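Task: sequence design from structure.
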C-alpha cells in the first residue's frame, strides 16, 4: 500500500472520529467535566511528547541530527533521474557517482519498487563532472535527458529560513502574552492566560517535531523549508484556537459570579468546543482531497500540517485551559503564591 493511501486513511478515520464526537456532544454542555480530569490530560500530553523526544535523541545519536535534513540545510546537489527502461539499480548508480569523487550520495527510488525514477543527493560537483555522470548513467540504462534535473543549494538557505522561523515564533510568544495582558486586564492575573497559551503552542511544536523525526527514521522524510512553513501554520492555528477559548472564559466570569472557577471554565469549553471542531473538520476534509489527488511532493507537508492542527485543537482544550485552572488552584508547586504555600 502506497504511503499517500495510508496517510489518507489515517486522516479520514481521525476526521470521522472527530465528527462523531461533535455529534454526540452537540447541545450537551457540562456532559463531562473536562477540567476535573486535568491530571489525566497532562499525562496524555507527557505520553505523547516524551516518546517524540526519545526518537529525536535516538536520531541525533545515530545520524548526528534530530531530523533527516534536506538539501536546504546541508547544501549540495540533488539529481532527479528517470530511465526509459529497466537496468539501473542503486549499486550501479552509486558506482557512477563514486567514480567522480562523490561516494557519500543518498539514493532513493521514487515511486514503487518497479519505478525507473531515482532521486540522488550528493555534494557539489563542477559542470564537467556532472556531464560525465550523465553520460555514465546513460550507459547503465537509457536516461531520459529531457526529465533530468539537477539542483544545487547552499546550506545558508536553510539557515536563513530556520533563523526566520525561530524569530517568528519568539515574536508570536511575546505578542500573544502582551495581547492577553491587555485584552484580559479586567480579570485577575491576566498574564497567566498568555503564558498558558504560549505553553500550549510549545506543546504543539514538540509533538510535530517528534512526528517528523519518527517519519524521518521510518520513511526517510526530510526537514525542508516546507516543514518550517507547516510549523508556523500550526503555531498560528494553536494560538488562535486557545485565544477563542480563553475569551469565552473571560466573558463568562462576570456572567456567573459566585460559581466555582472550574465550573465557569468547564462551561466555557463546552460552549466553544463545537466551533473548534468545525474549523478542524473543514481543514481535514480539504487535506483528504489533497492527499487523494495531490502529488507525492505535497503529502509530507499535508500530513505534518494534519498532525499539527490535530494537536493544536487538543492542546487548546486539554492543555492550555487545564493548565490555567491548575495554576489558579495553586497545583503547580514552583508557581504557588506565598499564601498558598503557607496553607499547604
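Answer:
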Amino acid at each position: 500500500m502506497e504511503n499517500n493511501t495510508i496517510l489518507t486513511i489515517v486522516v479520514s478515520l481521525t476526521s470521522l472520529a472527530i465528527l462523531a464526537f461533535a455529534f454526540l456532544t452537540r447541545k450537551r454542555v457540562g456532559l463531562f467535566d473536562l477540567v476535573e480530569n486535568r491530571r489525566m490530560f497532562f499525562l496524555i500530553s507527557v505520553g505523547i511528547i516524551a516518546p517524540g523526544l526519545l526518537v529525536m535523541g535516538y536520531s541525533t545519536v545515530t545520524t548526528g541530527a534530530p531530523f533527516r535534513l534536506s538539501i536546504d540545510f546541508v547544501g549540495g546537489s540533488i539529481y532527479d533521474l528517470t530511465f526509459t527502461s529497466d537496468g539501473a539499480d542503486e549499486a550501479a548508480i552509486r558506482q557512477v557517482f563514486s567514480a567522480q569523487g562523490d561516494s557519500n550520495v543518498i539514493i532513493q527510488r521514487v515511486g514503487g519498487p518497479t519505478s525507473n525514477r531515482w532521486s540522488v543527493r550528493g555534494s557539489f560537483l563542477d559542470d564537467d563532472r556532472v556531464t560525465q555522470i550523465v553520460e555514465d548513467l546513460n550507459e547503465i540504462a537509457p536516461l531520459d535527458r529531457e526529465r533530468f534535473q539537477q539542483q544545487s543549494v547552499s546550506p545558508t538557505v536553510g539557515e536563513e529560513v530556520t533563523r526566520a522561523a525561530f524569530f517568528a515564533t519568539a515574536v508570536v510568544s511575546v505578542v500573544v502574552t502582551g495581547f492577553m495582558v491587555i485584552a484580559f486586564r479586567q480579570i485577575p492575573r491576566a498574564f497567566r492566560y498568555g503564558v498558558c497559551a504560549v505553553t500550549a503552542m510549545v506543546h504543539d511544536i514538540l509533538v510535530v517535531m517528534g512526528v517528523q523525526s519518527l517519519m524521518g527514521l521510518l520513511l526517510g522524510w526530510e526537514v525542508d523549508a516546507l516543514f518550517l512553513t507547516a510549523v508556523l501554520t500550526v503555531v498560528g492555528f494553536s494560538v488562535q484556537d486557545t485565544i477563542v477559548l480563553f475569551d469565552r472564559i473571560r466573558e463568562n466570569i462576570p456572567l456567573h459570579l459566585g460559581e466555582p472557577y472550574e465550573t465557569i471554565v468547564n462551561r466555557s469549553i463546552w460552549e466553544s468546543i463545537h466551533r473548534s471542531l468545525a474549523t478542524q473538520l473543514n481543514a481535514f476534509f480539504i487535506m483528504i482531497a489533497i492527499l487523494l489527488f495531490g502529488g507525492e511532493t505535497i503529502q509530507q507537508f499535508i500530513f505534518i500540517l494534519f498532525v499539527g492542527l490535530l494537536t493544536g485543537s487538543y492542546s487548546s482544550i486539554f492543555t492550555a485551559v487545564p493548565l490555567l485552572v491548575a495554576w489558579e488552584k495553586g497545583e503547580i508547586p514552583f508557581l504557588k503564591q506565598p499564601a498558598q504555600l503557607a496553607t499547604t
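The chain has two domains: 3-69+155-333, 76-153.
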